[in-house]
Design a protein that fits this description.
Helices cover about 20% and strands about 30% of the residues. The chain has about 325 residues and is an alpha+beta fold. Strands 8, 9, 10, 11, 12 and 13 form a six-stranded mixed sheet that branches. Strand 11 (about 245-260) and strand 12 (about 270-280) form a beta hairpin. It starts with a helix and ends with a strand. The relative contact order is 0.20. GO terms for molecular function: 8-hydroxy-dADP phosphatase activity; 8-oxo-dGDP phosphatase activity; 8-oxo-GDP phosphatase activity; metal ion binding. InterPro entries: Nudix_hydrolase, NUDIX_hydrolase-like_dom_sf, NUDIX_hydrolase_CS, NUDIX_hydrolase_dom, NUDT18_NUDIX. Keywords: Hydrolase, Magnesium, Manganese, Metal-binding.
Length: about 325
Amino acid sequence: MASEGLRGALTAVLGGRGLLVQNYDSGPAGEPPAPVRLRKNVCYVVLAVFLNEQDEVLLVQEAKKECRGSWYLPAGRMEPGETIVEALQREVKEEAGLQCEPLTLLSVEERGPSWIRFAFLTRPTGGILKTPKEADAESLQAGWYPRTSLPTPLRAQDILHLVNLAAQYRQRARHPLLLPQELPCSLVCQRLVATFTSFQTVWVLVGTVGTPHLPVTACGFAPMEQRGGIKMAVLRLLQECLTLHHLAVETKGLLGLQHLGKDLTDGICMNVLVTVAFRNPGLQNEPPKVRGENFFWWKVVEEDLQNQLLQRLRDSSVVPINR
């Protein structure tokens, strides 16, 4: 029965559907983490990348005093009570005058758990492009510009990578289409699909407290975890059950994103694909030994699930997480 539940959970996460966060297996030292609140201890930013059939990018001209007249992708901070998609659609409408539909999450960028930006490949579904006559506090105007000849000055160069990422995705999608799942969460946390592979065999780390499950680690807001970024919470959980000094750990990227935003549930859960490997493999063909009784390695024997995991790992078929 435990294997059936794990197969179902892994299938849901690999399919981008997500799972309700019931509890967490690892938390920051000290007091239990308090629920996160937008405008108080977390800031989420949404950003839209539009590319039309003429390989043109939609940009908006900034109205804010500190960057007035410069150009940027439609972007802005989420408001309490919004879903991620609602925030994206509001920002695009306010800044560019268009209705839109997100096609897929392109990238997640973070400066620690208190500041996270979600970038989407997006398409217009209606509305009228904002002109200088409609200039307001949100933006001065919006326009389509050739991807290889963007207007200057840009507010920041960081959008160039995102524009290129969108163009690459349209040419060859590295990961399946992925949109946020509307599931409540009170913390900033990560659900790990932590894998060990050997000779086309895959093991996945499983938490045992309660029903066997994919382990969840809650992010902390202490200075060390802020400086180190969200990967610190992943390393903390693995440190609690594995001897890491002889292991190489890598977060490959995002398999899914969960957030609701209603009823004061401002937390997010990122379902992440993680690899664990020996620094000096030698003849090691079994996963590293687990300390304690709260975790174990589950050997994935179902062929379809095993192939999905191996393909995701081989092709890095995940949404990138960048700092």
